[in-house]
Specification:
Layout lengths: L1 E7 L11 H4 L4 H14 L2 E7 L3 H10 L6 E5 L8 H10 L2 E6 L21 E4 L3 H17 L1
Helix pairs in contact: 2-5, 3-4
The structure holds 1,3,4-trihydroxy-5-OXO-cyclohexanecarboxylic acid.
Length: about 150
């Protein structure tokens, strides 16, 4: 069975209450259950992790080498700052898809650069919860085509 690691970065635990005009009313729990449902349909197993701590995310990616076939990640604010997460993804060599609820290019200038995109196979943004579902579909298709 295909194993996928899903990582949600900082403040995504607050979804539903956090800036709903930007991120919508959907909660992380709802996103995770939609992802789990899709994974079941596609015969994949998900390990889902949320953290507000950069080092925890780096540790988990490092430990996942050889144990998972794909990574679906919303690095949240670390998208724009974390060389460490970018390097961890490059070091583990696992196919990664970056997702965002919002379109980072339509927002503040400081959000308009992702340090993660150069090491991602693809990036999906701007579709709210659907970004995650499209990202998981694309990731599983890539793994199946390998
Ligand atoms: C985000 C966009 C980031 O700029 C922001 O810091 C987030 C969420 C998104 O999903 O739209 O926390 O990654």
């Amino acid at each position: 069975m295909k194993k996928i690691l899903v990582i949600h970065g900082p403040n995504l635990d607050l979804l539903g209450k956090r800036e709903p005009a930007i991120y919508g009313k959907v909660t992380l729990k709802e996103i995770n259950s939609a992802l789990t449902k899709l994974a079941r349909k596609r015969k994949a197993a998900l390990k889902i992790f949320q953290s507000n701590h950069e080092g925890e995310i780096v540790d988990l990616i490092g430990k996942s080498k050889g144990k998972i076939q794909g990574l679906l990640i919303n690095p949240a604010a670390y998208t724009h700052t974390s060389v460490a997460i970018r390097d961890a993804i490059a070091a583990c060599g696992i196919i990664a898809i970056e997702v965002h609820l919002s379109n980072i290019y339509s927002r503040e200038e400081f959000r308009q650069k992702s340090l993660i995109s150069p090491v991602a196979k693809g990036v999906i943004m701007g579709f709210g919860m659907k970004s995650y579902l499209l990202g998981l579909e694309a990731l599983l298709d890539l793994i199946d085509a390998k």
